[in-house]
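Handout, page 2. Input:
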Amino acid sequence: MAMDNQRLIEEFVLYLKSVKRYSSYTCRSYYKDLNQLQGYLETTYAGISLLEVDRDMLRSFAVWLLDHRLKPASVHRKMVSVRSFYKKLILDGRMEMNPAQNLPLPKIPHRLPVFVDEDKLKTHPPRMIALAENRDEYESIRDALMVELLYATGMRLSELTGLSLSSIDLKQKFVKVYGKRAKERVIPLGETLIEEIEKYFDVYERYFKLCKPQDPLFRTSKGKKVYPMLVYRLINAYLSKLTTLDKKSPHVLRHSFATHLLNAGADIGAIKELLGHSSLASTQVYTHTSFEHLKSVYKNNDPRKMKPPKF
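Output:
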């Protein structure tokens, strides 16, 4: 029975990867969530097939997760994985009803995206910090450009590491990005960023000699494609010099990009396209962030509380 359950999970994850074109990270998350469900069922309901699971069993699984001190957001995500899994089994004709359908999920506390103040990013440009800390010329310019691109385009970490040399079009001044589910979008590049990219290309060609369009845009000193943790550590170190925020990940730069654009008066629909959101609802969270920022500015500069000037 365990082998049958494992096969169902692997077939589903393969479907997510090949048909839905989910990222490898997302596929691993689904695989881990469903295997955790399988392990729970084997312990609690020995010998049961995933095809025989009912609503009460899934509810007890959710309670078990909460009892093991998982955060509501984590439990919510795992149960969404389970719901999607059973939805696919119904589409395949292996089940008639989805036991996870309308199953109550833990409420996720509403959190606004965190971002870095625009003035701090302007007074501490990435190229200044990166160049001061690295000895290797290529790594210095590479690190500075990675930070610049993340903030100036709002792209995701996975999108950055997936860029190739052909992703950049210097004549048309844009970068082509493949986002979630391999959706393509084009993001314009400013003049300053173009100059930084041209400098990087010069060093890149000298460092790696023969280059092909399909080669990774960002490589390690050994020539391999940069890996996510390398970029994460870089961003964490950079943001640690600018802010006391608890979260210092590449996604903070993405949030900063969207928030600063909105504060500057950019159209929310345009921001949606730049971020690669499939729904405007995902982008509208930045309107709340912008409003909170506006309230903070007003509170600190309330004319009724300001002292009159002395003459």
